Amino acid sequence: MQKLMSYMRSAMERYGMVQSGDNIAVGLSGGKDSVALLYALARMRLFYPEKFELCAISIDMCFGGVETDYSALQSLCEKIDVPYIIKRTQIGEIIFDIRKKPNPCSLCARMRRGALHDAAKAAGCNKLALGHHMDDAVETFVMNLLNEARVGCFSPVTYLSRKDLYMIRPMIFARESDCARVTRRENLPVVKSKCPADGCTERQRTKELLNSLEKDYSDVRYKILGAMQRGHINGF
Questions:
Q1: What radius of gyration do the chain's Cα atoms show?
Q2: By residue range, what is the domain housing residue 34?
């Protein structure tokens, strides 16, 4: 836990992610990354020099027309004293049943982000914290390079002028394994995604590619992140 919070504090201070008076919404998908982020921010709220408030927001895609059971996350939020909002949507039905997209991830992500941005603003938040970690950043960089022939990634801090909302990624220096370790050791609840495409995505293939490279090139993810920072790619 201390290791994850140390990584987060380093990122928050390096990129000026949090200022006193911020009201931060945490996008809580229910996966290990977002749950670890919420739990760590709730702990840091007690001692971080810049005082901030938190709320958690889950966007339910309602895959197959069925509402997701978030009761375990509700109990966690009550335990750590964080207000919790669940927004039910028809995104799952639109993507898979109506449009029947063969490659649904991009459109689904855009629709989910739009719903999350709206919910954060409706909750009176000025910032939205997302559970992206270093593995996500490196995978995104590699996917953009191989699939689109461009150098780019998401930014540690992004300002959405149309929403007057900042997106922050406090776990950008942490590994996916750090998140998994925290959820396991702290016995945190995880709600498994019911997405029909889960585990069969381009991101999963990129993750497997990087794992294979790791066998011959040690610390390949750290090296790629270092190159992104030295090149000041998208604000890194």
A1: 17
A2: 2-235
